[in-house]
Amino acid sequence: MAEKIEGVKHEGILSKGFGLIPRMLTRDKDLSIEAKAIYAYLAAFAGNNTEAFPSVELICSELNISENRYHKHRKALLEKQYIRIRRERLETGFSKNHYELVQMIPDTVSLQNVGIGNVGIRIVGIQNEGTNSNSLNKNNINSNSNKENITSCKQDNAYSEIIDYLNLKANTKYRSTAGATKKLIKARIEEGFTVDDFKMVIDKKVAAWLHDPQFNQYLRPSTLFQASKFEGYLNERVRGYEGNRTSVTKVYSDDINF
């Protein structure tokens, strides 16, 4: 609330909005100060809700950090499951991020580096009702192993689908099993991007670069899927790409760093 004192108008610090930051997060020593700042920024936008929608460009501008630095520290929040990201495709062909501030952290997340005070712990005895603990442990191990196998299979399918699509569209012969390529794809997926997002980036850059002798060499995973470029490629408007609503001339700047 604005307050007027001796002819000077003072604006309350909360008048533009505010959010809540969990103590668990602020005391988590696995998180960098940048990761905590990013969460605080999202929380301020969310207010009393659990979702926020600021653009990456706005976040980086107002936190005064680069996109590479932002993605690096946002990844920690995703891995610790403090936030989730859902992408919404707009009618214009662009997309935006929906950030969800997770309210319940799964019990599989390690909290060993989170300082917890003033918590009373009651030890409860559990009677043995004929359940074999070794059998339970074995079942848990098998269950975890099955989940890991399923996750690995899904990732391998995503690698193949994306790289096969690139090879088809760009007439290239990249391998989906290459370690560097898999690392790039996995990192973007962990940031919330989908296989369809990869295909859209490929389509747009093929439309822009395939017949350009200067730029067709950059139709490669190391350029298309790198952290500092991917989201920009996804949202740009490219002449010749049928997903655009209007024809826009693509201008290349001299300082593009591939």
TrEMBL record:
It holds the Pfam family Phg_2220_C. InterPro entries: Phg_2220_C, WH-like_DNA-bd_sf. Residues 162-235 form the Phage conserved hypothetical protein C-terminal domain. This is Conserved phage C-terminus (Phg_2220_C).
